[in-house]
């Protein structure tokens, strides 16, 4: 493997490794053991010595590990449109002077029924002229590029907090939307109804990855929490943070509004792990605390 970059060497080991012999197995625990579509799950690799590195993938997507409870952990986003089946996963621990230890398996992802929502919106918000269509597509590509950015450091700690005050749960995650009679993309976040001007706050610590005013999301903030995790705050009336700024959990990002395609003031709150759209409620319930 001399001259082969570490990440590639690890990938080759993962691909070529025979099943680990008994006694050299890795302790790998899935949380939850039977995740659902739209969940943020996490893998806990126990007993990882200092200096060792952990590599792995789920469904062919690489995982980003971080130190946790004497081992290492990685978040796994189970996209709301995940095709049926049981994705394959692999994990390997690489240490100098010791044979790699590996584990692999398949994770059964439970299906989930999403509601169907019928909305009526002004035609100009649905049947776009070519220039607006092009603008929205370009903005979508720009968002996609931000979501796929994997910052190597972990910026979040502890629990995630609601992005608006109150206790009413958010609604609409995964809803199959039929707008003016036409099926559209599923709703990939959760909506919190709140009066215009209500503070919208950071769900956890991170860095402001994007501040923009886009056709569908309106005024928006995207936070990068590191290791591929992003949260989104759409339809804001105003924004009070700047790109590149570090923010703490609970820090005000702006005020709730109805900018972009919105029928009234509300906060659209979204979350992604390595580009996989997850249920923000699952993020708020994440039991990975340190
Ligand atoms: Zn929404």
Descriptive overview:
It is a single chain. The chain is mainly β. The protein has 2 domains: about 5-105, Immunoglobulin-like, CATH 2.60.40.10; about 115-285, Glucose Permease (Domain IIA), CATH 2.70.70.10. About 10% of the residues lie in helices and about 40% in strands. It has 3 helices and 20 strands. Strands 12, 13, 14, 15, 16, 17, 18, 19 and 20 form a 9-stranded antiparallel sheet that branches. Strands 1-2-6-5 form a 4-stranded antiparallel sheet, with no helix packed on it. The longest helix has 18 residues, at about 130-145. The chain is globular. The two termini are about 35 Å apart. The relative contact order is 0.16. Residues about 5-25 have low confidence and may be disordered. Zinc ion (ZN) binds near residues 187, 191 and 268. Zinc ion binds near residues 172 and 191.
Output the structural class: mainly beta
- Return the CATH class of the largest domain: Mainly Beta
Could you give the order of the helices and strands? HEEEEEEEEEHEEEEEEEEEEEH
**What number of structural domains do the residues give?**
2
Shape: globular
Low-confidence stretches: 6-23
Output mean pLDDT: 90
Classified in CATH, the superfamily of the largest domain is Glucose Permease (Domain IIA)
Task: Please render the helix and strand layout as text.
Layout lengths: L5 H11 L11 E4 L8 E6 L7 E6 L2 E2 L3 E3 L2 E7 L10 E8 L2 E9 L9 E4 L10 H18 L28 E4 L2 E2 L6 E4 L5 E3 L4 E9 L3 E9 L2 E11 L6 E2 L4 E5 L9 E8 L2 E3 L1 H5 L6
Parallel strand pairs: 9-10
Antiparallel strand pairs: 1-2, 2-6, 3-4, 3-7, 5-6, 7-8, 10-11, 12-19, 13-18, 14-15, 14-17, 15-16, 16-18, 16-19, 19-20
The chain binds zinc ion.
């Amino acid at each position: 493997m001399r001259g082969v970059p570490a990440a590639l060497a690890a990938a080759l080991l993962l691909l070529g490794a025979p099943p680990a012999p008994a006694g050299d197995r890795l302790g790998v625990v899935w949380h939850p053991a039977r995740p659902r579509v739209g969940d943020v799950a996490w893998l806990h690799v126990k007993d990882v010595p200092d200096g060792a590195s952990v590599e792995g993938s789920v469904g062919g997507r690489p995982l980003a590990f971080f130190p946790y409870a004497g081992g290492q952990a990685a978040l796994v986003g189970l996209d709301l449109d995940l095709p049926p089946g049981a994705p394959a996963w692999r994990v390997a621990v690489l240490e100098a002077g010791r044979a790699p230890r590996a584990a692999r398996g398949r994770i059964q992802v439970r299906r989930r029924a999403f509601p169907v929502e019928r909305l009526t919106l002004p035609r100009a918000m649905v049947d776009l002229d070519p220039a607006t269509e092009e603008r929205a597509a370009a903005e979508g590509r720009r968002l996609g590029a931000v979501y796929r950015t994997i910052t190597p450091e972990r910026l979040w700690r502890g629990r995630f907090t609601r992005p608006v005050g109150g206790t009413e749960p958010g609604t609409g995650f995964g809803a199959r939307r039929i707008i003016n009679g036409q099926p559209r993309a599923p709703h990939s976040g959760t909506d919190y109804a709140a009066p215009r001007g209500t503070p919208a706050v950071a769900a956890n610590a991170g860095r402001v990855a994007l501040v923009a005013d886009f056709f569908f999301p309106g005024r928006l903030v995207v936070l990068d929490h590191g290791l591929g995790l992003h949260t989104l705050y759409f339809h804001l009336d105003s924004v009070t943070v700047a790109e590149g700024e570090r923010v703490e959990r609970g820090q005000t990002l702006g005020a709730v509004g109805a900018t972009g395609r919105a029928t009234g003031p509300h906060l659209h709150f979204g979350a992604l792990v390595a580009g996989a759209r997850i249920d923000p409620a699952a993020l708020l319930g994440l039991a990975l605390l340190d």
